[in-house]
Design goal:
alpha/beta; Rossmann fold; pyruvate-formate lyase- activating enzyme; 3 domains; three-stranded parallel sheet; globular
């Protein structure tokens, strides 16, 4: 079974709890003075504007640490050109906590085509340019300049996705762990609550941060080798082929064997000794120079992500190594309830005045009901950050928050905009047997088919929806988080309930593609399941007397996708009379399995060898534009590119002015747009399927 952990709220509160609860966490010395504080115990530095809402990382961590009795201040979107702005709250008593914010800073700042974005939803009035590239590293460096002796702890999604050597799409290089570049004392990955609470109390008791090496969900640098540990080289688990020998950073340690080969030979350990077993991944230098070893390291890394059986990992970076403790133990329902019921104001900091904050406006009337996703989509970052085990809030707590939104949320008119999370319909779903769950190393519970051990009963969720609708003052409850439709097909009653009461005209759905090649690399179900779901959706919409549409999401340029695959997808869209206004190109985010495919041309979903399967990869900007153009086959701007591609693919029969043709043979005059007074020749509902930058924060 899953290992237990101390209750998040069982620690004796720090003495500073006597100051009480802050109306807002302070962002200036003047606010600290009003609270009667002479100093902060912890200062959080973040790339996002401060919104005191449980959907924002700095707020949920800040309020949790406040509940533990600590004084928490915020430095938000600081001027990173000097260290001065990092001194605005003074020196904290315990540590600086540094995060890029709710999004990776590179995804926040750049599109999949590496163009700078024109806005930032996490900044007042969506102003761009308020955070640096690779914010965690820059903030940590400036903080160290400001206060040399204060511990620095980095976390959030940017640090999580860069905790080991990783491919960086924006520079097209393999970069070192962010720990090396940020020179931080500790990295906390994934959901950080357990590690942060224990770390804060131990530091408050006077324990030096350099001695705190036993917290789950943390990573740190080390030179020495701990006593009593058994070393398993990752190549003993999956042999990738002949290795390029690099210097062994532990070559002076007598516990390491066979130093000539650089690989210690150690027999696998019994389960009882797992807590003292570490897996050595290929070094940074090896994965940087050898794509096969990079793919191999990605595979081993993802097989060690279940908190129930994961072992520690270590990866050499020169003469030092990054050591990763196993992932954190998931929160219980009672812990997650208390976390979401902390005294949030549920609004942006008062200093922003009337400024718009698009990210807050989108979620201010929504309620999070779960964490995690067991879908395992290879392009998504939830696996690396929130994990595969669903963490559920209780029904009572969710209903209380709905009442809180009704009574306190600014501008509330009676509509809850979403009850969801990474996936809307995974609430209370999970493995039927905790022993099986703790031992499982599958990367997905629903691919290639739904696991027979997975509980797929949507009954409790149906009851939650009905009770939410019945809360006095609530007019509508919408489901805006993306839906896992293959799971929903197990419960037609759930689909009927959803379609009848909880769809606001459109429902997001993510088939991603129609062809088996790319779908197998995404770990997504075949398009036939989507077709069957659409039949039920349309039927129940008619029965409810409603005109409702599905918004299907598709990805261009994903590893494993050929131009023929995109052509077939375009033909499918045309046949179904679907026109996508905005589409998504694959964006390789650090640590994702699909990113390993993109970088290496190998498939880490299977055993990686020198002779293993090659994966087609779309690299050049012309081919990326072409694959994206197939998704918008109806746009005259794309017709010249598509005509040439159809000829190259031997499908010139799809060029013409008839209904069976994909693109017309004529080109509107001018710059390629549709002339005034004339309409594009393709009919059908216009669907906005934009997901720019959401591959790492998906709500499905």
């Amino acid at each position: 079974m899953m290992q237990s952990a101390p209750d998040l709220f069982s620690y004796r509160r720090h003495w500073a709890h006597k100051f009480g609860t802050a109306p807002e966490l302070p962002m200036s010395r003047a606010e600290m003075d009003l609270l009667g504080w002479d100093s902060c115990d912890i200062v959080i530095v973040t790339g996002d504007a401060y919104v005191d809402h449980p959907s924002f990382g700095m707020a949920i961590i800040g309020r949790l640490l406040e509940a533990q009795g600590f004084r928490v201040g915020l430095i938000v979107q600081p001027d990173w050109t000097s260290a001065a702005d990092f001194q605005r709250l003074g020196q904290p008593n315990l540590f600086f906590g540094i995060t890029a914010g709710n999004m990776d800073s590179m995804v926040n700042r750049y599109t999949a085509d590496r163009r700078a974005r024109s806005d930032d939803a996490y900044t007042p009035d969506a102003a761009p340019g308020r955070r640096p590239d690779r914010s965690v590293t820059v903030y940590a460096q400036r903080t160290r300049e400001a206060y040399k002796g204060v511990p620095i702890v980095i976390g959030g999604i940017e640090a999580s996705l860069r905790r080991i050597a990783h491919f960086d799409y924006w520079s097209e290089t393999v970069r070192r762990s962010v720990l090396v570049d940020a020179k931080a004392d500790l990295l906390i990955y994934g959901n950080a609550e357990r590690a942060l609470v224990e770390l804060s109390h131990r530091l408050a008791r006077g324990e030096p941060i350099e001695t705190i090496r036993d917290l789950r969900g943390t990573a740190f640098m080390r030179r020495d080798w701990p006593d009593g540990w058994t070393v398993l080289d990752s190549t003993q688990l999956d042999t990738p082929g002949p290795l390029k020998v690099h210097n062994d950073p532990y070559e002076d340690d007598p516990r390491c064997e066979n130093r000539a080969e650089g690989v210690p030979v150690v027999a696998p350990t019994p389960r009882a000794e797992r807590d003292k077993t570490v897996i050595r991944l290929p070094s940074f230098e090896q994965v940087r120079d050898d794509p096969v070893l990079y793919a191999h390291a990605s595979r081993v890394f993802h097989l060690e992500t279940n908190p129930g059986n994961a072992r520690a990992l270590v990866q050499a970076h020169g003469q030092r190594a990054v050591w990763l403790n196993p992932p954190p133990i998931p929160l219980t329902s009672s812990e997650l309830d208390r976390l979401h019921e902390l005294p949030f104001t549920r609004r942006p900091h008062s200093s922003y005045g009337e400024a718009r904050l698009p990210a807050w406006e989108m979620i201010r009337h929504s309620v999070i009901i779960l964490r995690g996703c067991f879908g395992g989509c290879t392009f998504c970052s939830i696996t690396e950050h929130e994990g595969r085990i669903i963490q559920n809030r209780s029904e009572d707590s969710i209903l209380r928050e709905i009442e809180e939104v009704r009574d306190r949320a600014p501008g509330f008119t009676g509509t809850i905009s979403d009850l969801g999370g990474p996936s809307a319909n995974m609430w209370r779903l999970g493995c039927r047997d905790p022993h099986i769950e703790a031992a499982c190393r599958k990367l997905s519970c629903v691919y290639p088919e739904i696991c027979r051990n997975l509980n797929t009963d949507h009954g409790p969720l149906i009851q939650l929806y009905r009770k939410a609708r019945a809360v006095p003052g609530i007019k509508r409850v919408l489901i805006a988080s993306g839906l896992r439709y293959d799971l929903a097909m197990r419960s037609p009653a759930y689909i009927r309930e959803l379609v009848t009461h909880h769809v606001g005209g459109y429902l997001k759905i993510a088939p991603e593609h129609t062809e088996s090649g790319p779908l197998s690399k995404m770990m997504k179900p075949g398009i036939g399941i989507f077709d069957r779901f659409k039949e039920l959706f349309d039927r129940y919409s008619r029965e409810a007397g409603k005109e409702q549409y599905l918004i299907p999401y598709f990805i261009a340029g994903h590893p494993g996708t050929t131009d023929v695959d995109m052509l077939n997808l375009a033909v499918w869209l045309k046949r179904h009379k679907l026109r996508l206004d905005q589409v998504q190109s694959f964006l390789p985010t650090p640590l994702a399995i699909a990113t390993a495919m993109y970088h290496t041309g190998r498939n880490p979903l299977k055993r990686v060898t020198r002779q293993c399967e090659s994966v087609p990869v779309v690299r050049g900007m012309r081919q990326r534009r072409l694959q994206k153009a197939f998704l918008r086959y109806h746009d005259p701007e794309n017709w010249p590119l598509l005509r040439q591609a159809l000829k190259d693919l031997g499908r010139a029969d799809l060029i013409g002015n008839g209904k069976r043709h994909l693109v017309p043979s004529f080109q509107p005059p001018g710059t390629g747009g549709v002339p005034e007074g004339r309409r594009a020749p393709i009919a059908g509902p216009r669907l906005n399927a934009s997901r720019a930058g959401k591959s790492q924060a998906r709500r499905r």
